[in-house]
Amino acid sequence: MTVGIDKIGFYTSPYFIDMVDLAHARNEDPKKYLIGIGQKKQAVIPPTQDVVTMAANAAQKILSEGDKEKIDLVIFGTETGVDNSKSAAIYVQSLLGISKQARSFEIKQACYGGTAGVQMAVDHIRLHPESKALVLAADIARYGLNTPGEVTQGGGAVAMVISSNPRILEVEDKRSFHSDNIMDFWRPLYRHDAVVDGHYSNSIYADFFQQTWMDYRQKYHRTIDDFRALTFHLPYTKMGLKALRSIIDQSKHPEAILEQFEASRMYNALVGNLYTGSLYLSLISLLSNSEALNQDDLIGLFSYGSGAQGEFYSGRLSDQFDRSQLKTDMDTILSERSRITIEQYQEMYQTFLPLNEEDKLFDVSSDNSCFVLKGRKENRRIYLTKNGSGDAQSLD
Q1: Average pLDDT of the chain to the nearest whole number
Q2: Is there a binding annotation on residue 242?
Q3: Which of 5, 34, 156, 396 is 20 to 30 A from 269 in CA distance terms?
Q4: Cα three-residue angle 234-292-282, rounded to 5 degrees
Q5: Vertex 14, ends 79 and 321: CA angle to 5°?
Q6: Are 229 and 260 in contact (CB under 8 A)?
Q7: Binding positions for (3S)-3-hydroxy-3-methylglutaryl-CoA (predicted)?
């Protein structure tokens, strides 16, 4: 029996800024962002979206009514939680109408939470092959305006159905881990924006990749040429390229490996940083844009979460995989977004629910997503669903 990713869905904001516009506004050479960082566009998340609505919007595109009945595990990986007690998963379970006979909880370990959820779900399905699990990875990356990290912001959500006999990726029981108490990035409870030591975090990322890659090779006696492609957690796309270049000399066919990496970072360069979802957007990008993948091809996945936790694991492309629909859906999502000005971006960036208990409501009329955040009243978040006409109904 094989277990892995059976369905995968994506959602991001309908708004983006162009990195050339941002570079000009910050008096920087655009090449610094386009080449030095490897980013072209950045998603801008409106106040009417949070990780709950983005995850629900990503999942509703892929879930059938049969899936909702068979799902008995909902795991939400995020570092942008909406409550210190109640999990974002409980909200999404309710919004989507998933069976109430399900475990539902949230995982936090920086950008690693989505991978932790995938591995827990895979282990669950191996024990319960008739069940299905829903894994959600959603975040909003914030470093502040006019900061060195501003160019690596972004946001969005990835939703994955984990099942037996998956139609996308069969996850192998081959994994290596590395963890250590590192202060390279953290998000205090009293701040909307992250605190990060950028150069140190880059160094730790590279160290953790080297450690997990070396451990994986030694445990399973594989080399880089056993893999058709390697995918990476991509807070910005140049970061993954640096990691890949550190081992590319081990390959007899480096051009082929680098070509697959280029396919895997196309969408990340257009969306920006998803934190927990970044690795899985990279996987979506590879699956959508590579024309060289074949059934049973081995794909490596490197996951990293600051603080810090790293993991390298592997999966095989299912013989049932069909890239055409996934690519069509992704290209539609990204092409239908609206480019906004830097002034509009800055105003949107500074509009959010305050950290105190103040009530606040947003105008949701311009947000045509299925699920939206209306705001907060009497300490309760208000989520709405929109029908085809744009009218909203409360899902309290």
Answers
A1: 95
A2: yes
A3: 5
A4: 15
A5: 75
A6: yes
A7: 29, 143, 242, 273
Report the CATH number of the 3-168+326-394 domain: 3.40.47.10
Using the predicted structure, report yes or no on whether residue 288 has a pLDDT greater than 60.
Answer: yes
Name the token pair of 283: 């996987």
C-alpha to C-alpha distances, 140 to 115, 144, 275, 395, nearest whole angstrom? 17, 12, 7, 23
- The model's pTM: 0.96
**What are the domain boundaries of the chain?**
3-168+326-394, 172-321
CB atoms within 10 A of CB 348: 18
Hey, what CATH topology would domain 172-321 get? Peroxisomal Thiolase; Chain A, domain 1 (3.40.47)
Sign for the CA dihedral angle at 74, 77, 83, 88 comes to negative
Q: Is 108 annotated as a binding residue?
A: no
143 assigned binding-site residue: yes
Q: At what angle do helices 198-220 and 237-245 cross, to 10 degrees?
A: 50
pLDDT of 369 over the 90 cut = yes
DSSP designation for 4: E
Residue 256 CB neighbours (<10 A): 14
Q: Which residues belong to the active site?
A: 79, 111, 233
Which H or E run includes 271? helix 266-271
| Ramachandran region, residue 97 (left: φ > 0; alpha: ψ -120 to 50; beta: rest) | left
Least confident segment among 12-21, 299-308, 381-390:
381-390
- Contact at 8 Å (CB) between 42 and 154? yes
Q: Do domains 3-168+326-394 and 172-321 have the same CATH topology?
A: yes
- Neighbouring C-beta atoms of residue 206, cutoff 10 Å: 15
| Token pair listed for 41 | 């566009």
Element (H, E) at 61: none
Confidence at 390, pLDDT banded by 50, 70, 90: very low
SS3 104: strand
**pLDDT of 150 over the 70 cut:** yes
373 beta partners: 383
- 102's tokens: 């399900």
Contact criterion met (CB below 8 Å) for 295 and 321:
yes
pLDDT band at 393 (very low <50, low <70, confident <90, very high): low
Tokens of 233: 């957690």
